[in-house]
Amino acid sequence: MAESKYEKNMVKMSKEGRRGPGGALMSDELVPGCNVFIMYFWILKMPEPNPNPMHQSFEWHDYDEIIFNVGMDPDNPEILGGETEGYMGHSQQIMNKTTLLYIPANAEHGRISTHSFEKPYIQLAIKLSSNIEKMDERLTREETSHSPDEDYNRYMITEPLRELTSPPGTTGRTSPPYTFLNNKLVPDCNVYLEYSWIWDMPTPNPIEMSHAHNYDEIVLNIGADPENIEELGGEIEAYMGGEKQVTDKTSAVYIPKNVEHGPVKWTKFEKPHIQMSIVLGTGEPGEALPGGHKPVN
């Protein structure tokens, strides 16, 4: 059997080796050359202690970061399941809905506390750098490019765009998908992030045919069962560079730019789950074309 070139590009979550309800889904250590670090955690209860002393100081680093708090009720995806407070500079952010925070490089952020907890939800920390050790090399305030008095609330997204069109006759999944980051929402971010709930066997199936683009892409498949976080709730068959990849786990796939990928097909469905696409290097829908969708004309 020929050696697989892209098998290493898929990271599957397992019970073995993980600490607590989550862990790293993508990093240069897991997939060399991806140049991104993605941590994923379930919030399963009111945190203790609250606030956590580790989260009460400010930090700032020389790379952009995305914090995405995602409600895990497919019937009410906009509801987070709790209320959290945080700060960027002097701007307070209160999050009780599915909310994306885009944190520009060198912007101070922190002072996190939880006001209430109702039901489990997830938090994704997407660091747009492979060298996350730099987060511990504190810059002096004089070296930062952002003032603490800046209005950072413009970087908080609570209302997604519905700017992509799905193929005709789409059923079993969110249509149109939820776009939580692009150049319209955060000018010049040059990242496109959208996701869909899969709540039944989707049609058409496959939804995404073979294609390539000049941007790296990461696809996250996230199970919605807080008691079995590694289980996806279905089985997905996809292709990268002509190689078949199959997953029934919460997983991440790094797709390098200009590599043919697709089609993507569900071979089993058991429970609702999320598929999320993160395209790096462009925030324009016509260039990203994530998940087989097209921009609305």
* CATH homologous superfamily annotation of the largest domain: Jelly Rolls
Low-pLDDT stretches: 134-138
The helix fraction, in percent, is: under 10%
What proportion strand? over 45%
Mean pLDDT: 91
Output the CATH class name of the largest domain.
Mainly Beta
CATH architectural label of the largest domain: Sandwich
Anisotropy-based shape? globular
SSE topology string: EEEEEEEEEEEEEEEEEEEEEHE
Largest sheet: 7 strands, antiparallel
Using the CA coordinates, give the radius of gyration: 19 Å
> Number of helix segments?
1
Number of strands: 22
The end-to-end distance, rounded to whole angstroms, is 46 Å
Number of domains: 2
The structural class is: mainly beta
CATH topology of the largest domain: Jelly Rolls
Notes on the structure:
This protein is an all-beta fold and 297 residues long. The protein has two domains: 1-10 and 160-297, Jelly Rolls (Sandwich), CATH 2.60.120; 35-159, Jelly Rolls. Helices cover 1% and strands 45% of the residues. The chain has one helix spanning 285-288, and strands spanning 10-12, 22-26, 37-43, 58-59, 65-71, 79-88, 91-97, 99-103, 109-117, 121-127, 156-157, 164-165, 171-173, 178-181, 191-203, 216-223, 231-240, 243-249, 251-255, 261-269, 273-280, 294-295. The strands form five sheets. Strands 1, 13, 14, 15, 16, 19 and 21 form a seven-stranded antiparallel beta sheet that branches. The protein has a six-stranded antiparallel beta sheet with strand order 2-3-10-5-8-11, with no helix packed on it. A four-stranded antiparallel beta sheet has the order 4-9-6-7, with no helix packed on it. It is globular.
